[in-house]
Each structure stands twice: as C-alpha cells, then as structure tokens.
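Marked as duplicate of an earlier ticket. Keeping the data here for the record.
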Amino acid sequence: MFRNKSKSLHFNYFIRFSFAAYARQLCSKPLLPEERCVAGSANLTDFLEEKLKAMQQRELEDYLLRSSKTSIYRVPAKLRQIEPKAYEPHFISIGPYHHGSPNLQPSEKLKWLSLTRLIGFGERARDELDKLVTSLEAIEHKARCCYSEDVKLSKREFVTMMLLNRCFIVELFQDLRRIVSSLHPSSPSDGCFLLITLGNKVKRGTEPHMYCSTTKLKEAGIKTRVLCYSQPLDVRFEKGTLRISSLQIDNHIASFFRNIVAYEQCHHECYLDMTTYLFFLGKLTKSTEDARLLHDEGVILYYLGSNKQVAKLINNLCLELVHDGQYSYLYDVVERLDIHSD
C-alpha cells in the first residue's frame, strides 16, 4: 500500500511539475512550420505521452534503488521528542545529517589529521588520494541512496565528507584494536568488536503477553540470577531460574539503546531484538523494588542514581514504541515464565 501510494505521488509530481516545465519551454518559442502542422494532433500527444513515460520510468528506477538500499534514517519525531539529546552527536559527526553543525566543527580537524596519517605526504600521497577519490566518486550515487532523505550536498561536498569520515573511522578502529589487544593479548585481533545481533541463530515465535515483574516472579518461587559468561541480550529460563546477562547502566547506555531501537523501528529488514529485550526488561523492572532485586543479584549494575531512577530510565526507553511480539527471540522464555508463575 505504501509503495503504491509512493508511485502515485511520483506520478502526480510528473504531471504537476515535469509536464508544466516542458509546456512552458514549448510555449516560449514560436512554432516552426512543421510544428504548426502537428500541434494539437495525435502525433504531439503520442510524443508527450512517451516523454512522460520515460521520465516516470527513470524516477521509478531511482525510487526503487533508493528503497532497496536505504539503511540510514532520521530518528522518527515521536521518539526524538522524548529525549532529543540522545540522538545528537556531542563530539563528532559521521554522515550528512549533522554535517556542518557549528558545535562539531572543532572535531573536523581530527578527520583531516586521520587522512594525512593514512595517506602520508609527497607524490605517493597524491596517487593514493586520487585512487580514493576516484573510488568514492564511483559509488557516490549508491551511497546517497543509503539515506532515507535527499542529501543536500554537492558532489564535491559529499565525496569529501565520505573520504574524511572513512579515514577517521578506519583510524579509530585501528586504535581500538590496539587497545583491546594490549588489554586482552589472547583475544583475536580481528574479533574485538561485538555486534549485538542474534540474526537467525535463535528460534523465533510470537511472544505471549508477560504479566510478571521481578517481585511477582519471586513470589511465584522463580529466582532471578545473572547469566555468567554470556553475550548481551542473552536470557534463559532453566529449572525455575530466570538467568539474564549482566547489564551496566551508565550515562551513555540509554543513548546507545535509544539509537539501536530507533534503527530497528525504521529498518524493516532487521529483527527487533533490542526492542524485544528492553520491553522484557521493562516488564521485569516495574517498580523500585524490582530494580533493587535485580541490582542485588548483579543483573543490573549501576553506580549513579537510585533504584527509582534506574526503574524510570528503563521504562522510559520503551515510550512511544509498539511491540507486537512477533518473531521474538524471547517467546519461549516468556511462555514458560507465564506457565510457571500461574
């Protein structure tokens, strides 16, 4: 339905603007003898129809390319209004949405320094720079299609932005790899970044409604314990005990969660695993007492604020969100919790 509506909007655009522009151009000059002969005839109608079809096809192809490649979005207004600063960069911008923000300009120098360190100086640097620019110019259009909105940057500005951002990110990852390797020498050098995604590795199903908080689970005889040696988002229910990976709450985790959830809400090709996890955590942490119990067991770790503040923070993460429970990786856990607590 959405796509049909979009096509209709595109067609209206052609009728209102493209045809009008062509008509003005056609009427701005006197008709030639041969044009006088066909003006108003079927031949001119056929010509205009073919021109409209060609323009519509080009726009449609561009729209389909953009739709299939889109993976970078602006945060929906209903989510942004809850905590606007959670979605704004405070130090450096990556990509066009915050490009040129006055408060981020001092950090732009770091990107130029990264470029200098990566390509060096002299004639060799010129050759490397030319290769980089050529490769980025070749993918400029595809890169623009990754964004959900039209990027209001010229080709030179957009390619320069991609080049500087690319160099900064590459150098940042290299630095992080060296830090992790120094702290954990036994860790593989190419495996120091953990992506929070479960993909198709787990069973999925429709999650039933969960009624019990941590306090209610305790009253039903269900223990809540920390799940050791696990990955983020891991939750298990075994032998009457709910085990959850430890979560450390700090000044930055809320912003991190909000951005992951916003991406899941916009990008319909990914599973809503972070959204599912936060809804589950919110059901467990309905009160100050729930937060205290989870903290005492090491499930939630925090050193700033109170149990009341932590409970409020967790539940605010799910405001303005709708979770239907489909394709949930926690459906089996929630189902067995409900059965066990009845």
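See parent ticket for discussion. The chain has 14 helices and five strands.
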